[in-house]
Amino acid sequence: MQGMSPIVKNMTRLVAGFIVLFGVYIVLYGHMTPGGGFAGGVILAGGLALVVLAFGEEFARKALTHEAAKTADSIGAMLFLLIALLGYAGGVFFTNLLPVGEVGKLFSAGIIAPCNIAIGIKVGAGLFGVFVALAVFRRAGAGSSTGMIEG
Amino acid sequence: MDPVLLLLLVLLGFMLAGSLIAVETRDLLSSVICVGAVGFGTSLVFLLLGAPDLALTQVVVEILVLVVLVRVVITRRDETHATSRATLPVGLVLLALGVMAAIVFGTLATGEDEGLTMRPFGDPLLNEQAEASVMAPAGEKAPEGAPARMPKSAGGAFLAHGLSESQGSRGTGAANYVMGILLDYRAYDTLGEATVVFVAVLGVYAVLRKVGRSRHAGNESDR
Amino acid sequence: MTLAMAPYMLAFLIFVVGLYAIVAKRNLIKVIVGLLILDYAANLLLVLVGYRTPAEGAPVAPILVGGAEKAADLAASAVDPLPQALVLTSIVIGLSVTALVVALAIRLHEKYGTFDTGLMRNLKG
To answer: Which of B60, B76, B170 sits opposite A43 (nearest CB)?
Structure first.
């Protein structure tokens, strides 16, 4: 897997940033518009997967490794659990401690927005790691690959 | 006839045809692409049924699944699929599954008992309301200040009182009610779901990693 | 059997097709395809149950647009948000389970060079 043609690489350079930006928007505005942590996380994973597919295995080994994905996955899970545990300050697990605020504003809905961010990191990193594992972890003799689609 | 119902039936028929082709076609690549078509059909149905969150999630999930599956099928030649037979006689399996589906569906759709039947499409329990005194726990009266009529279903109660502070509910303040349920009212579910995803990711790493496998190199058959 | 039950019936049929692929097919990719179809059909059935035609007006998505004062209108015409929340988690769980099954299939292909479970049994791995 050496990466695809220059056309694909250049288009990826142009588009990947916008895809990731869209994913971040979906995560941050999840409590007001359709979307949320899950959808945004999968979009983030898809954007990063596009980069890995276009630039090839070497790029995946250097810049976007599955170790980094593992770390981010764990950080997201810990963050979510931390928000849940902070609820004990208000009595029970998952208490909505933060002020609810005005409906429809970005800073509203208490812990839902931080939870969305944690889940977005977790799902995005986890699925990207799975994708890298499925696409890049190839061993010699792994099937008789045709050489046709090696990108 | 309701245009939504008509469009829905067309889409569901498309999905049924797609899934039949996906299951029965000889070529694995066409099979995977057909299941992609079924997934996008699901997304359209979600959009039609007023679930934009689900439609968005389904589309991106479908793209990721399709990329992974097409990669797997294209890079791994499998010459044997053309000759492989079904495990069991096809007619027998279809008959058994058809009888099973007919019994389950018949029980749900035509049962006489009020609580167990499936209500007709477009008229869920959400459409119904009951007197507040009926909804109070047995032997108790409705609390002070409760409205005369209350929704009968949990979803209706959330729609009525979940957003802002009223009648003992603190309110989530989330304009997207689905997120309000997912991350506030039923956050335990989401924690469990995050755990499942985490374990599945760990499982993929454990199945596919190379580290630690070379120690068994002496035993070729163990690889 | 009225027409109002037809969407449920079709969702059940799609479910049965997926179940048939899992039970009767030998090819692992076909089994994964069946699992995906099963997943879609179950999610679909749950969301279909939550749909409603309100007493007046058209059904809308359970997302509030334009301030808290519109909440009462939304409660009268929005579809049920509860199955949607449950299905949202189900979709992501389905994705991760699919990834795990695909990984297992890749490993089996590495070991036996085929996706056919019948041939795997003959090789006595």
So the answer is: B60
B88/C80 Cβ within 8 A: no
| A145 belongs to a structural domain | no
What pLDDT, in 10s, does the model give residues C18-59? 888 888 888 888 889 999 999 999 999 888 888 887 777 777
pLDDT of residue B170: 66
Q: Which residues from chain C sit within 8 angstroms of residue A133, using beta carbons?
A: 103
Contact status, residue A114 vs residue A36, Cβ threshold 8 Å: no
Q: Tell me which residues of chain C, numbers 31 to 50, contact chain B at a CB-CB cutoff of 8 Å.
A: 32-34, 36-37, 40, 43-44, 47-50
C96 to chain A, any CB pair closer than 8 A? The answer is yes
Q: Neighbouring chains of A at 3+ CB pairs within 8 Å?
A: B, C
- pLDDT exceeding 90 applies to what percent of chain A? 1
Per-residue pLDDT, B169: 59
- Is residue A97 scored above 80 in pLDDT? no
- The domain in which residue A90 lies consists of 6-136
Distance CA B66, CA C71 (A): 39
C123 touches chain B (CB under 8 A): no
Which of A38, A42, A142 minimises the CB distance to C110?
Answer: A142
Q: Which whole number is the average pLDDT over A117-134?
A: 86
Which residues on B lie below 8 Å from A77 (Cβ)?
A: 194, 198
ipTM value of the model?
A: 0.87
Least CB–CB distance from B208: residue in A32, A77, A137: A137
Q: Residue A134 and residue B71: Cβ atoms within 8 Å?
A: yes
Single-letter amino acid, residue A58: E
User: Looking at the partner chain, which of A103, A141, A143 has a beta carbon nearest the beta carbon of C64?
Assistant: A103
Number of domains present in the structure of chain A: 1
The pLDDT tens digits for B10-31 are: 999 999 999 889 888 888 888 8
Q: Which fold is adopted by the domain C3-122?
A: Helix Hairpins (1.10.287)
Contact B6, B22 (CB under 8 A): no
Alpha-carbon distances, residue B193 vs A43, A74, A122, C94 (angstroms): 18, 15, 11, 11
Nearest to B59 by CA among B80, B73, B38: B38
Taking the C-alpha atoms of residue A64 and residue B162, their distance in angstroms, rounded to an integer, is: 41
Per-residue pLDDT reduced to its tens digit, B111-124: 665 556 777 777 77
Structural domain includes residue B43 = yes
Q: Which phi and psi (to 5°) does residue B129 adopt? A: -130, 160
The mean per-residue pLDDT over the stretch A97-123 comes to 78
Kindly state whether residue A71 falls inside one of the protein's structural domains: yes
